Amino acid sequence: MPRIWSETIAAHRDAVREAAIDATASLVARHGPTGVTMSQVAKESGIGRATLYKYFPDLASILAAWHERHITAHLDRLAEVAEATAPPDRLAAVLDAYAHLSRAHATPDPAALVLHQAPHATRAAARLHDFLTALLTEAAARGEVRADIPPTDLAAFCLHALPAGATLPPPTSVTLTLAALRPGP
Amino acid sequence: MPRIWSETIAAHRDAVREAAIDATASLVARHGPTGVTMSQVAKESGIGRATLYKYFPDLASILAAWHERHITAHLDRLAEVAEATAPPDRLAAVLDAYAHLSRAHATPDPAALVLHQAPHATRAAARLHDFLTALLTEAAARGEVRADIPPTDLAAFCLHALPAGATLPPPTSVTLTLAALRPGP
Predict the structure, then answer these.
(1) What range defines the domain where residue B48 resides?
(2) Where would one find the signal peptide in this protein (chains A, B) (predicted)?
(3) B157, A168: Cβ pair inside 8 Å?
(4) Do B17 and B52 have their domain in common?
(5) Of A29, A35, A122, B152, which residue is most buried, by most CB within 10 angstroms?
(6) Contact A172/B185, CB-based, under 8 Å?
(7) What is the pLDDT of residues B93-124, one digit of tens each?
(8) What is the Cβ-side half-sphere exposure of residue A177, based on CA atoms within 13 angstroms?
């Protein structure tokens, strides 16, 4: 198969996947996490039902793909920020970016993910955790971060502490998280 | 009405409420957050349907009462711990108790609360937040806790940072949270 043709097919497949995910996101927003069926997704996206089932066996797999896409976008943004800032400012810049991203609105409905038991939703979360672990390992090696707790535990802490509810301003949760990570006196 | 009689009525009402909540908790555990109806709660608890509706207008209100009972039990335990330990150990003891409690198993299903939009579920959470704010205000006045961030924000941070997922051991999340709260050098 000529490369230009296989690239066209790949682009088409991506477009179908994206359309199915967008339709599902929009349906969940309108009808809630329990009110969405594969038939509605087909209708809303303009994809034939038979075609839709070739891409996604069920609603759970579309929700998982949505979640994956969402986390991947976060990771891309965090990687950009990490590349654009040199140590010792890198860690603070990435944590600040994550605190803001984790509060943005267009997130996959957690109730929908739980309900439909989206099986791969945790895989994307693991990649985010790995990214932060690498960042913290690097910072610990430079003495910017405490060495008495493994970087993987520090990363888990950051992922929970930084979003810190809608009520806490991001600069505050970043200040407190950085204080938690700082090496002891 | 003689006092003994009104006390009997109050105890009876509490028993009916408790039975309805227990039945709902057990049904949600078995059938998931969407598979439960008021009729099932009536049948499972042995309370007549008409009587059940006198206590709770809908499933959301039972879930809210369940959540309220759960948080109240937490608050009772935290208040006990606070009373049993004197400063400067009080704060660490209470945060440690909360880190353990927030990881216990028999919690109201968050998906159920979200789905049924249990209206008063946040009231109980606000009481927990108020309790921690008072504790942190007291600790800040003694110089045990940083004064540059309002105690209400510190409390919000603790509530998110301490549970920190099932993967992080409670002593680690308590150590990190206390480091975040410590006054600056």
Answers:
(1) 1-56
(2) none
(3) yes
(4) yes
(5) B152
(6) no
(7) 999 998 888 876 446 666 666 555 555 566 77
(8) 32
